[in-house]
Amino acid sequence: MAAPPYASGGLTAPSSTLASAPGFAGSSVPSVQMAVWEWMDDIACWRPYSGRVSSFIENYIQNHRVHQGGMPAALSNGVPVPGNSISLGQADPSLAPYIIDVTNMVQFRQDTGTIRRVRRGLFPQSPALLKGVLWEWMNNDGNWTPYQIEICFFLENSYQNRSQNADLIVFNLPYIVDLTTFFQTNKNTHFRRQVQRRTDGTYPLASSNACSCQHCQSSSGTGPILTRGRHLSHVSNSGQTALASTGSHRSSVIVPYNSNLPYFRRATSFGAGPSSGGAWGVAHSASTGSSASVPAISNGTSSILSLSLPSPGPVRSALAVAGKEVEDVVRKHVEKIENPPSEDCMICMEKLNSPSGYDGVSESKSFQSSEVGKLMKCSHVFHLLCVRAMYDSGNKDGSLQCPSCKTIYGEKTGTQPSGQMDVYSLPQSLPGHSDCGTLQIIYNIPPGVQGPEHPNPGLPYSARGFPRICFLPDNNKGRKVLQLLKVAWNRRLIFTVGTSSTTGETNTVVWNEIHHKTEMGSNISGHGYPDPNYLDNVLGELAAQGVTEDCLTQDP
């Protein structure tokens, strides 16, 4: 479904459209209002949670006296208490991976690290909200996606008036919804999608959060401004502020474009083009892998490092190695032997004193099918033709990896697509590391087209769950892991293009056997802290990719 033109701002539908919906009679604002919680999707559209989930969030906030969008009711050493996180799985089991951080008004998905903005909207009491009516359309993955709340009102009003069709042209959308067959049709392409109307618990009555300050009293909105958004004019370096208002009948909610949270604040970009100015100045080239120190952000968070991985990078140039040069790589790391042992070649599973199983399959200018050699470091023995075939099936980056003991010869590189790696220093501590702060890594890789090093060159690849947010303790070992992750990033080893083990989706960006911690305050999914063995384990995984402390003196 195409992004509506008002996706990033206020609703542009005429006020008469909303006035005709249930509960929107005239311009007067009733004394009773109802709360609808929403999340922002990938195209900057706000999607409503169900009435059941909205009620759960609203009740949780009131029971725990948490101020949404502002400072929590209680702090422990300046860190929000656990009561400020709401697990949506308690309201809807299908939302078990999701947690809402009420203090910062974001939704966090624990298994992927995806973070989305959330907000609380106030609406006049209406039959649609009292019934918990939600209208949804089926997306390309076969899942139901809710219409924006204003469109839900419009569809419900048309449905209750026994209209046969509802034309969404009033929202500048080229869709018409058949309310008898429950199909949406694109009037330009005639493509049809199934729609559904469902009820899932009444939406909650809005609790009073009014503020008596002059800033809030002078607001033209019909309800209170959430505490995080108000008073921004008194906060230095708080970034831009966007007014997310959806029509004259909706409460005005001030949403900070750059909130007091590093998830949405970009570090200085290296090699990503000229700086836009401001307090941080011009960055250096990404090709050096340099790091930069920038002034602390207002909440004590500072940006440490930003690395961009441009295209094409070293992988494509490595693919030019062919013919005689390929065999030069094999000769560099493999020593020919005359009397092979009487055992199997681990690559072709034929006897070493017999011809290679790749005889006639792998073309070679100088290797004979019966020639055998041993790798110089680990001394494991293989047919030379088998080693050549193994190299041909890889990245052709000038490196070899022993299939027996995994020893790496040369510098191994991967097939990670281009993207951005940002690092921030947070004052909060991770569970199990109370003696230090936290290093936050944000990986961002956009979708693109597969290159010659990928499984299906020329086909597009998706990039789900980005930006991905990861955490390390800010101690000596954590900083060492960070430096090695920086090397792995520059060598394109952290991600690859393949098949997702969680969703089964093909041609998508996936992790590449270097585990990351994506939970900061808990270990619900197993990808968080405390985990006393994690740093040692990830050092071992990095070493398996050829990234060790020795690399820190080699890589800039």
Keywords, please?
elongated, disordered N terminus, 16% helix
Write a concise synopsis of the structure shown.
This protein is of the alpha+beta class and 556 residues long. It has helices at 15-19, 51-64, 127-131, 149-160, 214-217, 313-318, 324-333, 384-392, 476-490, 534-544; strands at residues 33-40, 46-48, 75-76, 79-80, 85-87, 98-101, 106-109, 115-124, 133-138, 144-146, 165-167, 175-178, 183-186, 192-199, 241-244, 253-256, 302-309, 334-337, 372-375, 381-383, 400-401, 408-409, 419-426, 438-444, 448-449, 460-461, 468-473, 495-498, 508-511.
Model description:
- This protein is of the alpha+beta class and 556 residues long.
- The strands form nine sheets. A six-stranded antiparallel beta sheet has the order 2-1-8-7-6-5, with helices on one face. Strands 10-9-14-13-12-11 form a six-stranded antiparallel beta sheet. A four-stranded antiparallel beta sheet has the order 17-23-24-27, with helices on one face.
- Helix 9 runs parallel beside helix 10.
- The two termini are 45 Å apart.
- The N terminus is likely disordered.
